[in-house]
Amino acid sequence: IVTVNCARLLKADHHATNGVVHVIDKVIATTTNTIQQVIETEDSLETLRTAVAASDLSGLLESEGQYTLLAPTNEAFEKIPRETLNRILGDPEALRDLLNHHILKSAMCAEAIIAGLTMETLEGTTLDVGCSGEELTLNGKPIIANKDILATNGVVHFVNELLIPDSAKTVFELAQESEVSKSTDLFRQAGLSSHLT
Predict the structure, then answer these.
(1) Are 61 and 37 within 8 A, CB to CB?
(2) pLDDT tens digits for range 128-164
């Protein structure tokens, strides 16, 4: 699937006497903002804006290149426990890992994403992209709230859930999601859960 500024190429290579015509499915608008400027101007990305400023990633997001930002909305940040959010925001390394887990190494318009695709993030982890009907899914969940916000250095898709990589989780949080959750309960009952957090 070929796209031009996220417009789908419908018919290619119509040769004319003075050039070539390619037919696309939408009008291409002028793009002037970088990904960083998109973050700075969108009210629904206020928490993300704060997180990017605290992690010194703004330079990357306004630099030349072609990236995809899966931008967590304010709603996405509100879904995780306040204690967990404050811990990540207060830990520069965990915060950078969290944000890098939301940035893909290439610009991917929604039209060009194929079900079952695995994409690498700047953090070095992978995300599974699929489809549920006409909705895009990430790691099996239809969490993309708005797609194909074009920037001069890539594309932004708004997501309404936070994608937290293992590197940004405590031992306790990892254990609760795994096959050792009963052991975690025993640690908590013994008053030792603080060692895991």
Answers:
(1) no
(2) 988 777 778 888 888 888 999 999 999 999 999 999 9
Q: Which among 56, 126, 51 is positioned nearest to 85, based on CA atoms? A: 51
Bridge partners of 155, per DSSP, are: 68, 150
Measured distance CA(65)–CA(179) in Å, rounded: 41
Same domain, yes or no: 78 and 145: yes
Residue 4 domain boundaries: 1-29
Instruction: Name 119's Cβ contacts closer than 8 Å, sequence gap at least 6.
Output: 68, 104, 105, 106, 108, 126, 127, 129
**CATH classification of the domain holding 140:** 2.30.180.10
Angle between helical axes of 46-55 and 92-100 (0-180°, round to 10): 120
Query: Domain total for the chain?
Result: 3
* Distances from the Cα of 119 to the Cα of 20, 81, 114, 130, angstroms: 33, 27, 11, 11
Place of tokens 């708005």: 146
Q: Which residues make Cβ contacts (< 8 Å) with residue 145, sequence separation at least 6?
A: 73, 75, 158, 159, 160
**Three-point CA angle 52, 40, 91, nearest 5°:** 15
Say yes or no: 178 and 109 in one domain: no
Q: Tell me the pLDDT tens digit for each residue of 162-177.
A: 999 988 888 777 776 6
The answer on 173 and 129 residing in a single domain is no
- pLDDT for residue 196 is more than 70: no
